[in-house]
Each structure stands twice: as C-alpha cells, then as structure tokens.
Amino acid sequence: MDKHRRKTLIGISTALAVVIIGIVYLSLTTDPNSVIPVNDGYDLYRVSLHNAKDAFDDNEVLFVDVRSEEEFIDSHIPGAVVIPLNEITGNEPAVDKGALIYTYCT
C-alpha cells in the first residue's frame, strides 16, 4: 500500500473514531427525558397540557378544533367547537374580549 493511501485511510479512520466517540459520549451524558424547546416563533402561544387541563376543569377556555369535521366527529375535547384550519379566517368564534381560546389539531 502506498504512503498516500495509507495516510488517507488513517485520516478517515481517525475521523470516524472521533464521530463515534462523540455519539457515545452524548448518549451517555444527555438526559433522555430532557425537553428540547421548539423555537418556531410560537412558543409564547403554547400552553402545557397541565395548564390546558386546569383551564378545562375550571371551564375557563374555549377549545377550537382546527381539524376536519370528520376528524372532529371521530374524537374531540368535550365542549370544543370545530372550525377547520382552512376555514378559520372569517369564522372566528364570537367570544368576550380577553376570552381564553385554545386551538388544537391532535
């Protein structure tokens, strides 16, 4: 084997070893239950399941299901209204100013 090819193989092997060691290190030091925040610009508008359940239990929120009517019929949050996402503009529910409205799609 010529010298240049041997150096190339050693370099590739070293790089692969570094990547593998990095993956193993991260898998051993990262908490699998940690939450990774989503930064898509809507974080201020998200609510935890716990807070949504509390608002539901206290009858403080209107849930708007933005799925299709067929999906809504199959399952939905009790008391929710359905307004499919592609029809929501111009069909916003009439509620008091400052009313709490949660939209959902799952």
Summarize the structure.
This protein folds into 2 domains: 1-34; 43-104, 3-Layer(aba) Sandwich (Oxidized Rhodanese, domain 1), CATH 3.40.250. It is elongated, with a radius of gyration of 25 Å.
Describe the overall structure.
The protein is built from 3 helices and 3 strands, in the order H-H-E-H-E-E. The protein has 106 residues and is α/β, with parallel strands linked by helices. It folds into 2 domains: 1-34; 43-104, 3-Layer(aba) Sandwich (Oxidized Rhodanese, domain 1). A 3-stranded parallel β-sheet has the order 2-1-3, with helices on one face. Strand 1 (61-65), helix 3 (69-74) and strand 2 form a beta-alpha-beta unit. The longest helix is centred in the first third of the chain and has 27 residues, at 3-29. The N and C termini lie far apart (59 Å). The mean pLDDT is 82.
List keywords for this structure.
106 residues, alpha/beta, Oxidized Rhodanese, domain 1, 2 domains, three-stranded parallel beta sheet, 3 helices, elongated
Share in helix: 25-40%
Report the β-strand fraction as a percent range: 5-15%
Distance from N terminus to C terminus (CA atoms, Å) equals: 59 Å
pLDDT averaged residue by residue: 82
The ordered string of helix (H) and strand (E) elements is: HHEHEE
CATH superfamily of the largest domain: Rhodanese-like domain
Largest sheet, described in full? 3 strands, parallel
